[in-house]
Amino acid sequence: MQEFDHIEALWATHKVDVTISADEMLKQAKKEVSSMRTKSLLNIAGMAFSFLAVAALWLFFDFQSWTTHAGISIIIIAVAVYTVILYNNYRIISKSDFTVNPNEFIEKLKLYQLNRFSLYNRLYWFYAIALSLGMTLYFFEILGHLDLWVQILFVVISFGWMIFCSTLVRKAVIKKDKERIALLIEKFERISGQFHEQE
Length: 199
Fold this sequence. Notes:
Blueprint lengths: L1 H12 L8 H34 L1 H4 L5 H29 L7 H19 L1 H22 L4 H51 L1
Helix pairs in contact: 2-4, 2-7, 4-5, 4-6, 5-7
């Protein structure tokens, strides 16, 4: 038993010094930023596709009610505004390079973090309300041609989906995004500190 205690004491005093070089950390952080840029571009492409798909409804269907046209217009405007906001956020992280100006890059990453927070909070509710209003006006004409039980089912599923996205999904995305960007900022600040120590 003494032997085990001795080994345990040695293990407790033994420190494993795991150091990652600044270059290796920089490579990892740049890879994460690249992944973030790619996801942002995919979001923008998805929103642009949604814009075109909703606008195409006017080409393929002859709607009679003004509410349908108003609903489509509101949806298109909301999607266009949100797409422009996503593009502006993408430009913040796409134009700067850490190796050229580390402090400026870190500041832009912090600005990107604030913009993402705003996007998921205040701007999200504008988007959700505009989409809800647009869909309500759009389906006003269409739902009139369906049976009552189908109308009720459609309304319940639509609002259930929006509530699900506005609560659980939105909160999970906010938390994940916040942690990921905060970790990136911390990494780049440490890298910047290591570079300053080497100078």
